[in-house]
Amino acid sequence: MPTPDAPIRRQFRRICGFVAIALAAWAAPAAAQEPASITGRVIGPEGEGVAGAAIEATPESGAVRRTTSGDDGAFRIDGLRPGRWTLRASRVGFGDVRQAVSLGAGARHTVQLRLGERPYVLEGVEVVSPRGTQRERVRFETEAGITTRVITGNEIKMLPGLGEADVLRAVEVLPGVVSTSDFSSAFNVRGGSSDQNLILLDGFTIFNPFHLGGLFSVFNSDVIARAELLSGGFGAQYGGRVSSVLTVETEPGDGPLAVETGVSVVSSRVAVHSSLPKRVARSLGGENASWFLSARRSYVDALLRPITDFPYHLTDLQAGATVETGGGGRVQLTGYFGEDVLDLSDFDPPGEEEDASSVLRVTWNWGNDVAGVRWTQPVGSRWVAETRLGFSRYAELLRFPDFADARFGSSVQETALRSDLTGQISPGLTVQAGGELNRMRYENRAEAGGTVFAQGGRAGLFGAAYGQARWQPSPAWIVEPGLRLDFGRSNAGACSSGPPADLFPDDPEDMVIRPNRSCVIPSPRLAVKRFLGAGRSAALKVAAGRYVQFLHSLRDEQLPLSNDTWVLADANVPPVVSDQVQLGLEKFWGEQWYASVEGYYRNYGGVTDFNPADDPNNPGDDLLLGDGNSYGLDLLVRRSTGRLTGWTTVSLLKASRTFPDPAANGIEGVPQTVTFAPIFDRRVDVDVVMQYELPGGMDAGLRWNYGSGTPFTRPVAQVLSFETDIAEGGYRFPHPRAGDDEEDPNYYVVLADRNRERYPAYHRLDVTVRRPYTRRWGTFTLYLQVLNAYNKRNVLFYFYNYDNSPPTRSGISMFPILPSIGVEASF
Predict the structure, then answer these.
(1) Quick check: helix, strand or coil at residue 353?
(2) Are residues 699 and 642 in the same domain?
(3) Which CATH number fits the domain that encloses residue 402?
(4) CB under 8 Å to 493, separation ≥6 — which residues?
């Protein structure tokens, strides 16, 4: 018999059932609609990441989702509902690409979108958006404080070089960059010495990127995609040098088999590149793969061999390969070998036999070796990891065949491991963290006749860990805080982390650099950018940071041709520590015009100079410790599109260095330090660069440079040395004694204050004209270059002759007018 409340329980069960069915019906589609995401990378026709590309994800029905690719081409779209989506990527100067994607519930899909180039034809004029301008615009829109200047491979070829295009000569036209001699392609950035520039080939260090003591660079222009100079304000991910970072990037080389070759007055060269077959790429674990090989050699010695032995030649060999792995990853291999050979071992000048036997015969070899692998791989849906492992070495050896035991050598090498991880935490917050570990070693040696005159060698372990964030709280602001910890230790003990308490002491023994126990140096960085106006086409930026360098070059920058001699920071040699601040204003006018003005201040602690009063028995006083500073203003105006393109730069600089003066030590009333302007203290530097499309398919390039005079030390007198008169006491003028050979007395030159005088102002006009010819088999290009077109005899240095009455001065000039021709061909 049913109880009285049975109908109530049945009613309750029906209600619960209806609720359960309703909940199930609601939960089932909710589970089925768990959002998906798409992670990918936009690449160009040559496999390079395309920054600033617009990506649209369009569903079969509903709203379109949009985003923009980052600096390496990576992008991510979250919160997509399951179903079929169409992805579209586009960028000015490229053709669009579309790809259909089917997403399941909660799917994490990875894609790679490859763009093709697409020129725009307007009223018979073909305009292709320049890649370098794009990279600078993307950095302007996405980074706060960094100062970036990009020169593309085509722009490098249009800038006159020494016989052929030269990337380091091209860098000289950028704001804040100074070159002190026509004979050297070494450069100085914002008051720093040339060894304070970090030069990278595809991310790996090149210690001495010069041929013939600096006359031209080791880079083959046929395989260069672009050169990017970071002249200030770079974040915590950059370290190792305190002045600038120059990254030279090679072309990936994909596409059909192609050959590029060229002959100039300097050398002949060839570059071969192509994609690998799909089956080969798959056997390497990738989806696509490409490779390139480049070789260059000077040929004057080969041409003159039937007539005479020319003692010099250079060789470059560079190779690379890129494998695109699954999931948007990429593995890049880089290799370089270069050598200069100056061989005077068989040099036999014309003349009498005794004249030939008096010739000092030498052999001199120097060069670089670089090998590295770089792996970039998305990790999950929000992170991208990059790992680099590389080896770099520079060595030189000078020998004398007639003196087998005489040799002078120098070498430096680095084995480096670096790993970086970048992730987008939210639309307004990106973080980056990483670290690097470098094992470096140097060795310098000079010996002859069984005697070692100079010997030094150290090995050291140096590294860093860093964290960097990019926070954009609103469209108008970008804030980039960062912290880097640099550390190092050599087998000579912990390196000094700063100057002694008394930088310029009275006691000469206190001039020796004293080590600290700790060698961990924190390097904070901060940059802030404020966009101005509704179109985000103008911005005000400020950046400040500390930079550390554990490697020094003892190269004398006042010599027109010289190689680096490297030493590591250790217990006797401090690292260079530089605190820097800069303030800038930038403005774009569409895609055509850009202007920027930037002021900066830098100080340098731990710079070194040779100690003329060093004690041979004390290895700790070979160098003097000093400091310095520089400040200036850089102005740039550039036109990027149209038949006439180019830029104008005006750079103002004042730099100084201060060192103890050992010659004044202990003399009362005499300053114990000397402050002077370094050789690269060029107060005003102006560059005008123009490239113009001439009728008939010709292209013309022009570079005019003006620079105020650089400093030098002037001799003011020549004095006769005295000798001690032992018999009579006192001093007397030297005179030959009976039986002695007649010899001139010894004279000494009296110098004025160091670098107090200035050479005359420098100016020079360089012109190049190129004419391509297209045939069915390919294209060949003839070019003409004229350096110093109006033959300005710029002074390299002065000779003073005080034997004349009155004394005379004569100058040695740099390059006279120097025309050259060449040909390039591609198949």
Answers:
(1) helix
(2) yes
(3) 2.40.170.20
(4) 515, 570, 571
Q: Are 526 and 544 in contact (CB under 8 A)?
A: yes
User: Is the domain of 87 the same as that of 223?
Assistant: no
- What's the pTM value of the predicted model, to 2 decimals? 0.80
C-alpha to C-alpha distance for 680 and 190, rounded to whole angstroms = 9
What b/e readout covers 778-817, taking b as 16+ CB neighbours within 10 angstroms? eebbebebbbbbeebebbbeeeeebeeeeeeeeeeebbee
The one-letter amino acid code at 128 reads: V
| Same domain assignment for residues 450 and 478 | yes
Residue 270 domain-assigned (yes or no)? yes
Is 22 part of a structural domain of the chain? no
Calpha distance 366→275 (Å, rounded): 34
Task: From 683, 714, 745, give the residue that closes a domain.
Answer: 714
Please, are residues 324 and 287 in contact by the beta-carbon 8 Å criterion?
yes
Q: What is the largest CA-CA distance in the chain?
A: 154
- Which of these, 126, 157, 151, 156, lies nearest to 782 by C-alpha position? 157
Provide the domain count of the chain.
2
Q: Specify which residues 587 forms β-bridges with.
A: 538, 595
Residue 281 Rama label (left phi>0; alpha psi -120 to 50; beta): alpha
d(CA 71, CA 140): 11
Mean pLDDT across the stretch 711-734? 76
Q: Say if residue 185 is exposed, middle or buried (CB neighbours under 10 Å; 0-12, 13-18, 19+).
A: buried
CB hemisphere CA count around 18 (13 angstroms): 5
Rounded to whole angstroms, the Cα distance separating 248 from 271 reads 17
In this structure, the number of other CB atoms found within 10 A of the CB of residue 283 comes to 11
The residue among 206, 235, 11 whose CA lies nearest residue 143 is 235
- When pLDDT is cut at 50, 70 and 90, the band that residue 131 belongs to is very low
Residue 797 sits at φ, ψ, to 5 deg, of -165, 170
Domain boundary among 690, 714, 738: 714
Q: Is 726 within the bounds of a domain? A: no
Same domain, 42 and 116: yes
Are residues 569 and 427 located together in one domain of the fold?
yes
- DSSP state at residue 508: G
pLDDT tens sequence across 582-632:
999 999 998 889 999 999 999 999 998 888 777 767 766 778 889 999 999
Helix (H) or strand (E) holding 594: strand 593-610
**What's the CATH number where 44 sits?**
2.60.40.1120
What CA–CA distance (Å, rounded) separates 115 from 108?
A: 23
Closest CA to 569 of 499, 657, 465: 499
For the chain, the first-to-last Cα distance in angstroms comes to 101
In percent, the amount of the chain with pLDDT more than 70 equals 84
Residue type, 545: G
Amino acid letter, 817: I
Tokens 């200036």, residue?
A: 632
| Beta strands in 172-281, from DSSP E residues, in sequence order | 177-178, 188-189, 197-201, 204-205, 210-211, 216-217, 224-232, 244-250, 258-263, 268-275
Distances (CA, A) of 37 to 68, 107, 350: 15, 6, 79
Q: Is 24 inside any structural domain?
A: no
Query: What is the mean predicted confidence (pLDDT) over 117-122?
Result: 47
Q: What is the DSSP letter of 288?
A: E
Domain that holds residue 96: 36-121
Helices (H) and strands (E) counted in the chain, each on its own, are: 7, 52
Q: Which two tokens stand for residue 564?
A: 């680096």
* Best CA proximity match to 465, nearest among 425, 438, 428: 438
Section 463-490 average pLDDT: 92
CA angle 652, 578, 546 (to 5 degrees): 110
Domain shared by 98 and 146, yes or no: no
Q: Based on the domain organization, do 110 and 256 belong to the same domain? A: no
Angle of CA points 334, 338, 339, to nearest 5°: 165
Same domain flag for 254 and 319: yes
Are the CB atoms for 439 and 414 separated by under 8 Å? yes
d(CA 269, CA 280): 28
Residue count of the chain: 827
